Amino acid sequence: MIAMDKYQVARMLDEIARYIQLSETNPFKSRAFERAARRIETLERDVAELVTSGDLYSTPGIGKGIGPVITEIVTTGDSTYLDELRNQYPPGIFDLLRIPNLGLKKVGILYEQLGVTSIDELEKAAKDNLVAGLPGFGSKTQQKILEGVAFARKRESQFLLPRGIEAGELIREQLAAIDEVEDTEVAGSVRRRMEIIRNVNVVVSTRAPERVIEQLPRFVSDVEPIDEKTVKGIARGEMPVIFHFTFPEDFGLTVLRATGGKEFVAAFEAKAGRKLKATNEEQLFEKAGIPFVEPERREDAEELKRKKRPSLVHPSDLRGTFHVHTTYSDGRNSVADMLGAARDLGFDYCGISDHSVAAFYARGLTPDQVKIQQTEIAREAKKVAPMRVFRGTEADILPDGTMDYGEDLDMFDFVVASIHSRMQMTEEEMTERILRALDDPHVTILGHLTGRRLLTRDGYRIDYDRIFDKVAERRVLLEINGNPQRLDVDWRQVRNALDRGVLFTINPDAHSVKEMGYVVSGTWVARKAGLTAKEIFNTRPVDEVEEWLKKRSSPKSN
DNA sequence: GCCGTTTTCGGCCCGACTGTTTTCAGTCG
């Protein structure tokens, strides 16, 4: 028996489902595989044991078609069915899904009829006017495809921050193992924790740069010099890495310059007055007589003008969090697993909030299902005591601004109000919609303010001033959504919100145990905006939080 | 492909939007 965990099995079933969608006209066959994947994924027992015990076929959604596929995967680690499907299509066919409004059906047609297997080939076909004549396609679709190709190309040179952090730290470790390297630092936009980056900057302190440069091809490809102190390379075939070489006595200044931003560095150097020798940045600031400025606060020179430096919020300040999904809706892990993850983070409290019934696509819960979940939460809460557990929901703000669940929201300790539908309203309509939701006394937290998906789609347009004023007036918490694809609210808007009296909460919007770590990415936003612990609700002690939530859920106080 | 006190075939399936159609298919959240 090969050791396959349930997630590996589910991934293979999902891949089969995608291939079926490409080729089959019957949408229900692919959906059956997806359903089976979800079933396996949310299994409370070992998938291998399910197979050996013979209970596989009494599992809902698994019959004589999918059952043997799962059995083969679990016993051999492979699927001949999946291999056949893979052989029918070119590798990389799913790359085409990066074009907006291209789904599996259209990709299937493009491949079958025109032999299109890549974005380049798609662009050529569209330019040759071959796409417009296909069934289900027309001239507008062809035009949109060309726009989509341009969109995807632009995105190819941009990356979400975690990719840069991972690449930078890996290279840093590898460099540190070289004898001639005395010190290293990841700098640039990665160190400033910009949400979207174009490259990774690494500063290398050494007496023998040429000896280090010789070894760079071990970590990156396409190594080429930019100038005598700077070398460029490509990590993992996609991420540009810029190496800044320096002697140890100039390490401090080189790190500062390579970290940026331009405006900050210029103001710093003007203030320092001369080129300072320093083996690290702290020493550099000290010699310049300038209190240290955290890298996140260096987008402009404002911080240099300030007399007092705020102590930026740190992940260790967080004592708990809200907005955590479970297998009851679209999360990948059980209530017990998610609470365990919160406890492992050292939290004193955790709020569970699955989707509401209107979020059909995310398997939102009916009120009856909520009752069942709350019974389970109560049971699991005992096991993680003294950590406290709050029973919440991420309820949809409906298009008219009323809240999903209506008066049934009384069932919850807290309510995250979010928009998941009808996102193309005008700014005025969207603002009114959110303002109305904020007037509902059940609402505790306003979730992912703009609904943006970084590198994928812009958020909906809203009147920030009016919404922040209402959030403050209603004493609703404004979520800082820590999912690196969202990081919503944008850090550039935070100061405005703060000035209007808004209180924040850093939430992971976790859909798995691993994503509980998104509370850390949430602090990136807070820190870039200059927030301290006192402006973040979930740095408060659990008794205070419980009291606050109780007050909010009794309508009289509102 | 799965399912069935409406059981072996026909239904499964939310709702808005877009572009393609001339009544609907594909995409998205």
List keywords for this structure.
single chain; 558 residues; alpha/beta; 7-stranded parallel β-sheet; 22 helices; globular; DNA-binding
What's the SSE blueprint?
Layout: H1 6-23, H2 27-41, H3 47-53, H4 66-76, H5 80-88, H6 104-114, H7 119-127, H8 139-156, E1 159-160, H9 161-176, E2 181-187, H10 188-191, E3 196-197, E4 200-206, H11 209-215, E5 221-227, E6 230-235, E7 239-246, H12 251-259, H13 262-272, H14 281-288, H15 302-305, E8 320-324, H16 335-344, E9 349-355, H17 367-384, E10 388-396, E11 414-418, H18 427-438, E12 445-446, H19 464-473, E13 477-481, H20 491-499, E14 503-507, H21 518-528, H22 542-553
Parallel strand pairs: 4-7, 8-9, 9-10, 10-11, 11-12, 12-13, 13-14
Antiparallel strand pairs: 1-3, 2-4, 5-6, 6-7
Helix pairs in contact: 1-2, 1-5, 1-6, 7-8, 12-14, 16-17, 18-19
The protein binds one DNA strand of 29 nucleotides through helix 2, helix 6 and helix 8.
- Our count of helices gives 22
N-to-C CA distance = 60 Å
| Parts with pLDDT < 50 across at least 5 consecutive residues | none
Largest sheet: 7 strands, parallel
| Beta strand count | 14
Would you tell me the overall average pLDDT?
93
Q: What amount of the residues lies in strands?
A: 5-15%
